[in-house]
Amino acid sequence: MNANEIKAAMEAVLFAAGEAVPVERLAAALEIDADAANEYIEELIVDYAAAGRGIKLIRLEGSVRLVTKPGYAEQVKRALDTGRTYSLSQQALEVLASVAYNQPVTRTYIDGIRGVDSSYSLSNLIERGLVEEAGTLDAPGRPKLYRTTNEFLRMFGLSSISELPKADSVTKSGE
After folding, report:
1. 3-class secondary structure per residue, the chain
2. Residues of the chain with CATH 1.10.10.10
3. Which of 19, 106, 131, 169 is the most buried (most CB within 10 A)?
4. The domain at 3-78 falls in which architecture?
5. Does 23 have pLDDT greater than 50?
């Protein structure tokens, strides 16, 4: 396959997947090495930006995904009548921040940071696909560990968890 055919095949795979695809998996499907796949991905990112299209290609922790540009969210929402909102309560944001900055983390650890039970907010974040189980801690009771997902990265416009703003200082209310 020539370069244009490879990029077209890459687009087809990403479109059909409808979610993030690991670069290694994409490379294997196209029978090219990961370095070449990354070069084609960069070319596609530039191609989409230069063409002024309604979609773009984003990187998410070693994966890539086709997404709509934020400027067209209203039109997409109206066309698909999604009615789904992504507003998060203060409690959910606190739990999400605790997971994002300390992952992988147990619910007990999150509860300790917040000083209250976080079960309800954590289950809502899991349901929304922003947090997922990441195994168990090697400790008595084998508590579950949690981490953020690629959906979290996409929702907040991040390519990697390392792009989170630095938490310079965290203080409890009243200190």
Report:
1. CCHHHHHHHHHHHHHHHCCCEEHHHHHHHHCCCHHHHHHHHHHHHHHHHHHCCCEEEEEECCEEEEEECHHHHHHHHHHHCCCCCCCCCHHHHHHHHHHHHHCCEEHHHHHHHHCCCCHHHHHHHHHCCCEEEEEECCCCCCCEEEEECHHHHHHCCCCCHHHCCCCCCCCCCCC
2. 3-78, 90-163
3. 131
4. Orthogonal Bundle (1.10)
5. yes
pLDDT at 75 over 50: yes
Predicted TM-score (pTM) of the model is 0.58
Domain 90-163 CATH (choose: 3.90.1150.10, 1.10.10.10, 1.10.1740.10, 3.40.640.10) = 1.10.10.10
User: Average of pLDDT values for 101-128?
Assistant: 91
pLDDT band with cut points at 50, 70 and 90 for residue 97? very high
